[in-house]
Specification:
Blueprint lengths: L1 H49 L4 H26 L4 H18 L1 H16 L7 E3 L5 E7 L3 E5 L5 E5 H6 L3 E2 L5 E10 L5 H14 L10 E7 L4 E10 L3 H18 L16
Antiparallel strand pairs: 1-2, 1-5, 2-3, 3-4, 6-8, 7-8
């Protein structure tokens, strides 16, 4: 009885010692392996920057490489803990099927990221408007998501699948952009004078292109106003600044030329 108990204790001690050794080795592999992964990705990132690899492709490859190498490290850790490779392959096969069904949307994001990189509807640095109205600058295209910085400095992470399948407006494509501004004047005001004032404002702004020439025309006769359309072209970089300054100039110059901005109004006739 004593011999059996002693041998059981010895065997249990051997198991604990072996498991402790494997656990320590696994922890060491975890720490060192993830450190090596970080260094490898950093080195490849530096090499891609040195060889002027397109930022869109560089961020995608970094994300993909990081995930792949970390999965490889985890497999080594499992093997070190005593898990048989055949068991790992069997589990990975079953898990791949289950995960593929459960994360079909995630796999669509991976495919969407590849489509974006291949067809290039946008790239890092472009200003875009998404199908659901999100506007900003593309900062990173990663394996699952695209990082978008809005103009008010919010950071959005958009799924690549939705971006690849949705309507994307790329504001950065096209060097010059047209701007249309609608301006209302009161009935009875001189339309020709209003047109002359607007064209004078546009001619003084150096950001407004001479070709195509700016134009102003009568667009509609609304309930309370005569509506003019002001149309001109600028470079993309001057788009917002020029629009704001031109609107302010119109607001200041119209009253000086006895041109009135109309207010919504209704005439009521009383019958006795």
């Amino acid at each position: 009885m004593n011999m059996t108990l002693d041998s059981l204790i010895v065997k249990l001690g051997q198991i604990v010692a072996e498991f402790g050794t494997r656990l320590i080795a696994a922890i060491a592999i975890w720490i060192v392996g993830f450190w090596i992964v970080k260094k490898i990705v950093a080195s490849i990132s530096f090499a891609m920057k040195r060889h002027d690899v397109e930022p869109s492709l560089a961020t995608f490859l970094q994300s993909f490489l990081t995930i792949t190498l970390k999965v490889f490290v985890i497999i080594i850790i499992l093997t070190t803990m005593g898990v048989q490779m055949t068991s790992i392959v069997a589990v990975l096969g079953a898990a791949s099927l289950a995960i593929g069904m459960a994360l079909s949307g995630t796999l669509q994001n991976v495919a969407g990221g590849m489509i974006i990189l291949f067809f290039k509807p946008f790239k890092v640095g472009d200003a875009i408007v998404t199908a659901d109205g999100k506007t900003g600058i593309v900062k990173k295209i990663m394996i699952f998501t695209t990082e978008l910085h809005t103009f008010d400095n919010q950071v959005l992470f958009l799924p690549n699948g939705a971006l690849a399948n949705g309507v994307i407006t790329n504001l950065s494509h096209g060097k010059n952009r047209r701007t249309d501004i609608t301006v209302g004047i009161s009935y009875g005001d001189d339309v020709e004078k209003a047109r002359a004032v607007v064209l004078k404002i546009l001619s003084k702004d150096k950001r407004v292109l001479k070709n195509p020439a700016p134009e102003t025309f009568l667009a509609s006769l609304d309930d309370s106003s005569v509506t003019l359309t002001v149309r001109y072209w600028t470079s993309f970089d001057d788009l917002l600044g020029a629009r704001a300054d031109i609107l302010e100039a119109i607001y200041k110059e119209f009253p000086k030329n006895k041109l009135n901005f109309p207010f919504p109004q209704m005439d009521v006739h009383m019958k006795k």
